[in-house]
Design brief:
This is Sugar ABC transporter ATP-binding protein. There is one protein chain. The chain is an all-alpha fold and 275 residues long. 71% of the residues lie in helices and 0% in strands.
Length: 275
């Protein structure tokens, strides 16, 4: 029995090690290519050790695109989208979880159904509306379509339903608290782990979004980092070392955000497994 348990745990650890390696290796290889000349990209056997051209490749990036300006635009966009999504999703999730009103279930299902629609299908009507309001080549036009997040509403609704008791809400109402006061003073502190989880998901998804930003942003001063990096790949002679150096430095903020909020993220995942 003990041998079977140890053997089973061995295979679990082996699977986790392999999975971790497969997850980390692409980032390591990206770093290696960012430190090498472009010729190393197609070398056989593949180059797996870092080189000495990280600074040189990054200098080429700075000569090609307004890297720091694009990073600033992306950071502003991601922060605004994340904050708005957290506010709307938490308020909507609170309403769907703890309030009764006509058509609640139909409305909630309708919101969830929008998750199955491919974003490419909405590209033309969304572009038409943004252009109609004069928001082309603006950061607000690039971010406005992401303010309503069906996944965020669903996650918040489920988390609030399980974590915030109806008795606590009723007690607050008996004490004379308004609905917004209940949300601010009672619900919000309880759902902080879910806030961190949703915030990381939205921030990383917005940071990596490309199609919509490429569609509405044509002014180089308004470029996000994804659009700016794509503009470097315009010739037949592609400098992969330069491009991957830009991608490497553009990934650093995502790592920082995850490290800052990983404890709350893990707390949200383990909320239901540890009493």
């Amino acid at each position: 029995m003990i041998k079977n348990f140890k053997l089973g745990r061995f295979f679990v650890y082996l699977f986790l090690i392999v999975a971790a390696f497969l997850s980390v290796f692409p980032f390591y290889w990206m770093f290696v290519m960012a430190t090498r000349p472009s010729a190393a990209y197609n070398s056989i056997p593949p180059t797996l050790t870092p080189g000495d051209q990280l600074v040189e490749n990054f200098q080429k990036v700075l000569e090609k695109i307004p890297f720091f300006g694009a990073m600033f635009n992306t950071l502003i966009m991601c922060l605004v989208v994340t904050l708005v999504v957290l506010l709307i999703s938490s308020l909507a999730g609170f309403a769907f979880a703890k309030f009764k009103f006509p058509g609640k279930n139909i409305l909630f299902v309708s919101i969830l159904l929008t998750m199955i629609i491919p974003p490419q299908l909405g590209l033309i009507p969304q572009y038409y509306l943004v252009a109609k309001f004069g928001l082309l080549d603006t950061l607000f036009g690039a971010m406005v379509i992401f303010f309503l997040n069906p996944l965020g509403i669903f996650l918040m609704r489920q988390y609030i339903s399980q974590s915030v008791s109806d008795e606590l809400i009723e007690a607050a109402k008996l004490d004379g608290c308004s609905n917004f006061r209940i949300f601010r003073s009672i619900v919000l502190p309880i759902i902080l782990p879910a806030f961190a989880t949703l915030g990381i998901i939205v921030f990383t998804a917005t940071w990596g979004e490309f199609l919509w930003q490429f569609t509405v942003l044509r002014d180089p001063d308004m470029y996000t980092i994804q659009v700016a990096l794509s503009s470097m790949n315009t010739t037949s002679n592609v400098d992969f070392g330069m491009i991957l150096s830009g991608v490497f430095w553009a990934t650093i903020p995502l790592v920082i955000v995850f490290l800052m909020f990983n404890k709350l993220f893990i707390a949200s995942i383990t909320e239901g497994s540890v009493k």
